[in-house]
Amino acid sequence: MTHYYFIDLDIKDEQLLSVIEAEAFQKFNCDGIQEFTLEEEEVDRILGERSYSGGDLPIEVLEEVEQVLIEEGKTKRTLFFKEVEDARSFMEFLKAWGLEAKAKANEGEICDWNENWKRNFKAISVTDNFQIIPSWEKTGEDPNKIFIYPGMGFGTGNHETTFLCLKLMLDEIKDINNIRSCLDFGCGSGILGIGASRKSKTLSRVDYLDIDQEALKNTDYNIGFNTTAQAKENNLFLPEDSEKMLDKYDLVFANILKHTLLEQADVILNKTGRYLIVSGLLEGQEVEICKAYEDLDPCLVAKKKLVKNDWSAVLFKREL
Prior knowledge:
Mean pLDDT: 82
Oligomer: single chain
Helix content: 25-40%
Distance between the termini: 56 Å
Number of domains: 2
Strand content: 25-35%
Shape: globular
CATH architecture of the largest domain: 3-Layer(aba) Sandwich
Strand order of the largest sheet: 10-9-8-11-12-14-13
Number of strands: 14
Order of helices and strands: EHEHHEHEHEEEHEHEHEEHHEHEE
CATH topology of the largest domain: Rossmann fold
Radius of gyration: 20 Å
Number of helices: 11
Largest sheet: 7 strands, mixed
């Protein structure tokens, strides 16, 4: 049982919420975020006679349920902090932004955080024949499945941006088996790099880069769950390890927030050899990113945009 200080946020502006959550992790040592959950009783209430018995909800039904909860204002996030000073500093940050009325601070014991993850993380179908499966449900290797243990605050594929990145790779990169190197920039759980390893038969090296050592630990853990999806060489890097990275990668994923995509544009573009998939963008923000990236590198052309709910992702291809 672990003692946590937690702050409930009731902010409906997705763009503002994304920035605040990023600040919580980067500057205030946030230990994890619990999004609103889909309880069985709530699902039954919303779907009525269409309630499903057993199995996973189809993705379109899941989105319908989530939209109803959003419209009802049930979109609260809970941010967890191990240290009281971090929680207090974060509350001061919210106060400076005029958001103190949108936040409520508490503290208490949490028996098993991981059980919360397990209860809320279900299998996700990216396409008809490609799924993201919780690692605790693994019964054997499968070339059409990624096995993920999410960890606190890292990607599961459930979030739209991760889903969109994988969807673009699966549907739009027709020469995936000519990809030999991949960079997962801001890797989180490593799901994107692992996904590339799963789909490309020629991928020989995947580098995973993150500013958070815990994210790299989670990535390493997940690589171990996907033994037949591993490239011949897998490397875990912090920013200070940049000299160990390749000059160029055939495929780069950058699923981070807009301001980081702009701040790190030179680094991301310099590392892109053939394909770049960016996300972490609210719908509409991709316009600024596309213009900025194509201005900086005219040979890199936006080929495809996908939108899911309020989020967007873009596939770029280098035109030689």
